[in-house]
# Entry
Amino acid sequence: MTITEAQVREALTKVIDPALEHDLVSYRMVRGIEVAGDDVLVKIDIPTHAYPEALRREQGKRIESALKAIGARNVTVMQEVETAFLPAPSDKAVLKGPKNVIAVAAGKGGVGKSTVAVNVALALARHGAKVGLLDADVFGPSIPTMLGPPTKPPTAADNKQIIPAEHHGIKVISVGFFVDKGEAVVWRGPMVHRLLQQFLGDVEWGDLDYLICDLPPGTGDVQLSLSQLIPIAGSIMVTTPQEVSIVDVVKGIAMFEKVEIPILGIVENMSYYTCPACGHHDEIFSHGGGKRLAQEVGAAFFGEIPIDTRIRFGGDAGIPVVIAAPDSENARRFMDIASAAALKVAGAVLSKPKRSPRLAVIK
# Structure
């Protein structure tokens, strides 16, 4: 039986991707089809390194089943990662290199936002992505402390560009590298805006799949400046379970909606405490507030992070838990959060018509 490429493509329109829950053809995941009699080779673009391996196998099984149903004898599925992204519009092209920007935000301080940002960035790198981390918390830059001494410190290139620091395989920039540890940053809004412009436009980020932005708490100048300067694929909102934190996150979500930045999902940090000695489970800051909030605002709930001294110690010691204990339950939680966020970004990109960068008109 001879099978045509058109028949194969038609069959693939009925294959629902197990991670993105949409068909492979309309989401532009089919890179190529080769047919030789009743032998078929299908080349698939996996839109993120953080696509779970189990779902890759499931995707392959679904493709094979669909094609054997139309008479294919041997089906070969080749899956290659091609990070999905949309080119920046011309009015937001200050950032060169990173494909997708993911913000990590919180309505109030002290909820572990930077802990989530650092571990999600490192988790994406462990998944195989090329990752950068921008510490946009100008007045409270904690990223240099949480990542420890850099493998390579930040430097200035001959072209006056800034070469970012490298920590644990990711590229990092923070105002904390350029001020004394005990020195306070006392700047007005315009100075913060100019610094962000420099960190975005004058840093040689290189070809990155993701740039994670650790935002300051609240709804101030940094959030507005970033939304004006660059396209942000979405935001991970971090909260603790208690009501005082939830109320502030609601305000943060409202701000992101006004500047048209989608909420990728919500993480509940400090969700509970389990005594390592006796196993007693205690919900110190209440429990379930993040999940309820996600349901109320129609956002994804990315999961719970417990109170764990190993997470705290990792941040204080400069070796985050994803690096210090990669096989631990908490490291797995951050790996899952990173995967969920990356898949949300990929789904949003692939659901839109492909957009080409606008060309500048030379007069």
Observations:
- The domain at 5-81 is CATH 3.30.300.130 (GMP Synthetase; Chain A, domain 3).
- Residues 86 and 355 are 7 Å apart (CA to CA).
- Confidence is low (pLDDT under 50) at residues 356-363.
